Amino acid sequence: MTNYWPKVLLVGILVLLVPGCAPGDARYSADTGRPANFWAGLWHGLIIIITFIVSLFTKDVGIYEPNNVGWGYNIGFILGCMISLGGGARGVARRRHRHEPDRDRIGRSIGDSVRAGLASWREQERQAESDRDWDELGRKIEERIRAEMKKHSG
Question: Which distant-in-sequence residues (6+ apart) come within 8 Å of 21 by Cβ?
Answer without folding.
Answer: 27, 43, 47
